[in-house]
Specification:
By secondary structure, the protein is an alpha/beta fold. The protein has three domains: about 350 residues, ABC transporter transmembrane region fold; about 150 residues, 3-Layer(aba) Sandwich (Rossmann fold); about 80 residues, 3-Layer(aba) Sandwich (Rossmann fold). The protein has 21 helices and ten strands. The chain has a six-stranded mixed beta sheet, with helices on both faces. Strands 2-1-4-5 form a four-stranded antiparallel beta sheet, covered by helices on one side. Helix 9 runs antiparallel to helix 10. The longest helix is centred in the middle third of the chain and has 54 residues. It starts with 6 loop residues before the first helix and ends with a helix. The C terminus is likely disordered. Bound molecules: adenosine-5'-triphosphate (ATP). Adenosine-5'-triphosphate binds next to helix 12. The site of adenosine-5'-triphosphate has 14 residues, from helix 12. It is a multi-pass membrane protein. Keywords: ATP-binding, Membrane, Nucleotide-binding, Transmembrane, Transmembrane helix. GO terms for molecular function: ATP binding. It is found in: Cell membrane. This is ABC transporter ATP-binding protein.
């Protein structure tokens, strides 16, 4: 025998509580979020639209009341004849009904046009908000965090289409004033005409229909959320097929059939899941609620007919009751102006809120906007990584482990190390895209965290390995190295010359003004190596605009071997007096640097000049010799396929590395 409270009672209460909490979370809070957006559409416009919708809600009811009264007045008017008081009353009521009808026809498009204005204003304000939100982090940690990117993806989906936007949901919310005002007025009309039990029954039937409709839509949208991974895969496969990026490889490897099959299979899974969900979510509730609604509305109709048959209601009351019931029941369906857009907007706004929460959560440990200015000429003595330790957020792996590294001002320091050694991470810390987890980066002894990041970054010209190929003109691509100063064409040209790309750019159809994308009229695309030179020119432009530190992360990865040797031969010359940092995993490329640092396992394992390091016979010497031998044998995997005149280039490198 069991004793105590039956487990079912407690679990039923807990279940109810969970359902309630879930409903508040999914249906109430998101609606409040939509409501909070309304003021951004303009308070005056919102109030005007609300009043307009109130009127639009009442006009059809006025029409029904007028036509019902008209029906009741007909016998007396016909009896009295034209010119009688009853006839005049009939005419006046007819005019009233006509006015209600015409006003509805005139005001509905006005409401729609103003509603669109509300939609545009709200969407534009929200888009600006979302943009500001993503530009808010001083560092890039949040932008490299997958959860943040997922939330962002979900939030901006609302802006990627022109339906179902939060602005449209605001319009829909105001339009609901018309729907529900009409429902209340019709229930009152039914109550007055044929009695309150019928009125409440019809009102309940309409609300039950509405609940079924909206609840179904809510549950259905959950299916979409559960399928987000599949939808992402569809988007990815679509992009693979429809863009030129993967076109070569797909054909060379014969992947077209595989891609088409996979695309079809994922779509089929998604379609089947939605189909099953549609049946589950809509069919049973639809049948139950329709039955309930028909019973209640039918009951009210039958009751009205009985009243009429026994002479307990007037002709006017009967006409009013029947018309009001029919009109009210028509309010029990889907509201195209509100329902779908509200549901999608609720999902987007909830995702936007989660994005905000996630960014707040990630704020801890992120670079903060320091206030101090950067003294002119910094660094005058050195830039130093002072026992810097670092691991990426959400990762326990130590990338830098108390690293000590000094970049003497005005000299060229090279950091070399194998893939994954942490070289790019050093650059991210130097540019304050992340904050060290321990230790500090110091410029002339001052922790750079104290500087205003915007001012500090103007001081540092950085070109990353994955630099951006802006779909802008060649001149703009270079001048973006210092967007805070007006574009100087002479400087652009000089930077292009230093990077060895000026001649190629001037030969383009519009010279420096040629858009570097085939997506624009007169535009052209460049080769990988030419793009890399554009990026290098951007860094030179930053130097001309006042930057004192130059950081190039794998600047020659896309250059051919001969060009790489030539670039490094000139680089030290061109940047004399600049504090420069060259990052490379190719040991042979940095031998001309004043100072070479070898990073491995989060530590500096060796430092010195090329000759000193070779003489030391350590890590650097071993890897340098290994790579030089590979060059000499023409086996360097990164280069051997790039060359037309392979032998000549290999000789150039072999010569370069052994000089
Ligand atoms: N955003 C990130 N989140 C988590 N781990 C990261 C992130 N970026 C890099 N890492 C990890 O940090 C380590 C160091 O990466 P980093 O890019 O600094 O290496 P690297 O020396 O520049 O390599 P390569 O020569 O291949 O460019 C690697 O193990 C990498 O996987």
């Amino acid at each position: 025998m069991t004793t105590g409270t039956p487990p079912s009672a407690g679990s039923a209460t807990a279940g109810l509580r969970a359902t309630w909490a879930n409903w508040v979370e999914e249906a109430v809070r998101p609606r409040l979020r939509i409501a909070r957006l309304l003021p951004s559409g303009g308070v005056g416009l919102v109030v005007f639209l609300a009043v307009l919708n109130l009127v639009l809600g009442l006009l059809p009811v006025a029409f029904v009341v007028a036509t019902s009264t008209l029906v009741g007045e007909v016998p007396a008017a016909v009896g009295g004849g034209v010119g009688s008081a009853a006839w005049d009353r009939l005419t006046s009521i007819f005019l009233l009904a006509a006015a209600a009808f015409l006003l509805t026809q005139v005001l509905t498009p006005v409401g729609n046009a103003l509603g669109q204005q509300l939609r545009r204003r709200v969407d534009s304000a929200l888009r600006d908000d979302a943009m500001a939100l993503m530009l808010r982090p001083v560092g890039i940690g949040p932008l490299e965090d997958q959860r943040t990117l997922d939330e962002l993806n979900e939030a901006v989906r609302a802006f990627d289409r022109d339906w179902g936007t939060p602005g449209q949901a605001c319009f829909g919310m105001v339009a609901l004033v018309a729907r529900y005002t009409r429902l209340v007025a019709l229930v009152v009309a039914i109550g007055l005409a044929i009695g309150w039990p019928s009125a409440l029954g019809v009102g309940a039937a309409v609300l039950a229909f509405r609940y079924g409709q909206r609840g179904g839509l809510r549950k259905y949208s959950r299916v979409g959320r559960d399928l987000i991974g599949r939808m992402r895969e569809i988007g990815y496969l679509h992009e693979l097929t429809m863009t030129d990026v993967a076109a070569k490889e797909i054909r060379v490897f014969g992947l077209t059939g595989w891609l088409a099959d996979r695309y079809a299979a994922v779509w089929e899974t998604v379609r089947n899941t939605f189909e099953r969900a549609r049946r589950r979510v809509y069919l049973t509730p639809y049948l139950v609620l329709t039955l309930l609604g028909l019973l209640l509305a039918g009951g009210a109709m039958v009751y009205a007919a009985q009243l009429a048959a026994t002479g307990r209601v007037s002709l006017t009351a009967l006409a009013l009751g029947v018309q009001a019931i029919v009109l009210a029941i028509s309010l029990g369906g889907y509201y195209p102006e509100a329902d779908t857009s509200t549901q999608y907007a609720m999902l987007s706004l909830t995702a936007l809120q989660r994005l905000r929460d996630r960014l707040d959560e990630l704020d801890e440990g992120q670079p903060t906007p320091g206030r101090a200015g950067v003294p002119p000429g910094t660094p005058a003595a050195s830039l130093a990584f002072d026992r810097v330790g670092f691991h990426y957020p959400d990762s326990d792996r130590t990338v830098l482990d108390g690293i000590e590294l000094v970049l003497p001002a005005g000299r060229c320091t090279a950091v070399v190390g194998v893939n994954g050694a942490g070289k790019t991470t050093l650059v991210k810390l130097l540019a304050r895209l992340y904050e060290p987890t321990s230790g500090a980066v110091r410029a002339d002894g001052v922790d750079i965290a104290e500087f205003d990041p915007v001012l500090w970054r103007r001081q540092v010209g950085v070109i990353f390995q994955d630099f951006v190929r802006y779909e802008l003109t060649a001149a703009e691509n270079i001048a973006l190295g210092a967007a805070h100063v007006p574009v100087d064409r002479a400087v652009v040209l000089r930077a292009a010359e230093r990077a060895g790309i000026a001649e190629a750019l001037l030969a383009l159809p519009d010279g420096l003004d040629t858009p570097l994308s085939r997506a624009y009229p007169g535009g052209t695309d460049l080769s990988g190596g030419q793009w890399q030179r554009i990026a290098i020119a951007r860094a030179f432009y930053a130097l001309e605009a006042g930057a004192t530190v130059l950081v190039l992360d794998e600047p020659t990865a896309a250059l051919d071997v001969r060009a790489e040797v030539a670039f490094f031969d000139r680089f030290v010359e061109l940047t004399r007096g600049v504090t420069s940092l060259l990052i490379s995993h190719r040991f042979s490329s940095v031998r001309r640097a004043d100072h070479i640092v070898v990073v491995d396992g989060g530590h500096v394992v060796e430092r010195g000049s090329h000759d000193e390091l070779i003489a030391a016979g350590g890590h650097y010497a071993r890897l340098f010799t290994l790579q030089a031998k590979r060059f000499a044998r023409g086996l360097d995997a990164e280069d051997d396929e790039a060359e037309d005149d392979d032998t000549e280039d290999t000789a150039a490198v072999a010569e370069g590395v052994s000089r």
